[in-house]
Design brief:
The chain has 184 residues and is α+β, with helices and mostly antiparallel strands. Helices cover 18% and strands 30% of the residues. The chain has one domain (19-171): Mog1/PsbP, alpha/beta/alpha sandwich (Protein Transport Mog1p, Chain A). The strands form 2 sheets. The protein has a 7-stranded antiparallel beta sheet, sandwiched between helices. The longest helix is centred in the last third of the chain and has 27 residues, at 152-178. The chain starts with 18 loop residues before the first strand and ends in a 6-residue tail after the last helix. This is Dihydroxy-acid dehydratase.
Length: 184
C-alpha cells in the first residue's frame, strides 16, 4: 500500500517522532508501538501517524499493522458529558458499525463507510474518541482491505495510543504536583 506523504524525502536527518506536544502544550500525544508521528502533519490540533518504517525508521515497525492514524483535538467545554458509543454512532454521517470497543480510555467503532481515498485504503476503518485532560481526542485508523489495521487489531492499536497518551498526561501531572514551589 502506498502511503502518500509518508516518506522522509528531501534528505531529512531527524528520526520520526514517537511523542509530540499538542494543544499548545496541554497534551503530549504518544504513538502506539510501531507507529510514529509524521512531523510534517503535526499541528496544535492534528497529527498523522504511520508505521515507523514508512517514516524512515526501518527497524521501528515492531510487527504493527500497515495503516494510517489520524488524531484531531478539540477543547471540551466544562459542562460537556462524556461521549458514549451510542452518541458516537449517531454522529456518524455515513457507514454502518461492524464492531465496537469501549475501554476506560476510548470509545472505538469499526465502520464500513466511505474510504478516505480511492487508492488502496479500505472503506472499513476505525473511528473513535476519548478524553485527555481538557482535550477531546478524535481518532481514525485506515488501512488496505487486507491489513490488520481494518480488523480488530486496528481498534487495539487506537486503544494503546489512548492508554499511552493518558499515562503520559498522568505522569506529567504527577511530576508537576511533586515539584516543590520555588522559594525566595
Amino acid at each position: 500500500m502506498a502511503l502518500a506523504g509518508c516518506d522522509t524525502g528531501g534528505g531529512a536527518t531527524s528520526a520520526p517522532l514517537r511523542a509530540a506536544s499538542m494543544a499548545n502544550g496541554e497534551m503530549i500525544l504518544v504513538a502506539p508501538e510501531g507507529f510514529c508521528i509524521d512531523r510534517r502533519s503535526l499541528k496544535s490540533s492534528f497529527a498523522l501517524l504511520a508505521r515507523c518504517d514508512t517514516l524512515g525508521d526501518p527497524d521501528g515497525a515492531y510487527g504493527a499493522p500497515l495503516g494510517l492514524i489520524t488524531v484531531s483535538l478539540s477543547t471540551i467545554p466544562a459542562n460537556a458529558a462524556p461521549i458514549s458509543a451510542a452518541a458516537l454512532q449517531s454522529a456518524l454521517s455515513d457507514g454502518s458499525v461492524l464492531d465496537r470497543i469501549e475501554t476506560a480510555d476510548a470509545v472505538l467503532l469499526r465502520v464500513q463507510g466511505t474510504a478516505p481515498t480511492r487508492e488502496g485504503l479500505s472503506a472499513t476503518h476505525w473511528r473513535g474518541t476519548g478524553q485527555v485532560g481538557s482535550q477531546r481526542v478524535g481518532l481514525a485508523m485506515y488501512g488496505a482491505g487486507d491489513s490488520a489495521a481494518t480488523g480488530r487489531e486496528g481498534g487495539r492499536v487506537l486503544d494503546r495510543l489512548m492508554q499511552r497518551t493518558r499515562a503520559q498526561a498522568a505522569a506529567t501531572a504527577q511530576a508537576a504536583s511533586a515539584t516543590p514551589a520555588a522559594t525566595e
